[in-house]
Write the structure tokens for this entry.
Amino acid sequence: MISILLVDDQEDLLEISRLFLEKDGDLTVDTARSAEDALKKLRTNVYDAVVSDYNMPGMDGIEFLNEFTGLALDKPFIIFTGKSREDIVIRALNSGADFYLQKSGDAKSQYAELKNMVHQAVMRRRVEEALIRSESNHRTVVECLDDSIYMVDKNCRYLFMNAYHQRRLGITGEKYEGREYREFHTLDETTRFARAVTQCFESGKSLQDEYTRDGRWFVRRLSPVKNDTLERVFAVTVISAEITRDKKMEEALRLANENYRIIVEATQDSIYTVDTDGRYLFMNSHHKKRLGINGDGYLMKSYSDFHTPTENSVFSDAIRQVIETKHPHEDTYVRDNRTFHRRMYPVFGVSRDMVRSVSVISIEVTGI
């Protein structure tokens, strides 16, 4: 639905115009009998467009248009009048009128054309406003991110870069458009980047690349920008995020796992993990030696495959207790005239509501 304010000093013509414009139900029309009255309504009501007569006492249509523009309402304005002088048309359009329509004798065609003008002007303005909002939202997102976002052509010349990337490159206030990637990077960095840009242009597909700069790690994603009409890539957009912290955490985790592996393999105690059905997921070298196993042939084999029914029954009961209580359990058992003390620990999944597996440490205590 489109709402308009219709302004004309002739009351009978004003009412006729309102009836014609509202006839199809796609327009709602408010009326004013003078420019002064219209300005009062514009200060309190919101309209999608204004349609005004030119020849009115007090303030004519173009003077009204100038006052309307001063209110910064930024809505379509149409001059609808019986005056057909060329100088008035030029003044109206130069003052910012979207359309100028002369009143004619054929009411049906005249109001059909006026409605068409209203629809065109309003739709055009709504599209413009949507584009402005889209551009504003896009720029807000791009500029508020702590990631580098930039665009280059096939020769690695900058077409755009956000404020964060400008800070990374030390660009302050100077123009970057047309400057080359190599101006801010080493020869090796430039060669690597140019290779990725060329691949993106030729394949028309996105690609991802990890790289280091000044001792910091980054991951960047290059995406082709295509012209659908010409069916070709004309630029590449790059989003580059720092992952130094993640890399350091990965390295710390790798070292922790390596240290854990060394400790687990060096100990003379049995360390192993089973799933909730008692199938082996891991065992250290000492436990393999105890069971006479070489390699990884134990994976997903059951505890019962290597122990007596009685031993398996005791172990299964203990595993079930750990799963149900979600707490560690310990016991002592005898095997081949040797006494062992074992402690079982629940290993949780994503949440602590479910035990995913059970880790076991079994220590021989014979003679201790």
Notes: Residues 2-141 form a domain with the Rossmann fold fold (CATH 3.40.50.2300).
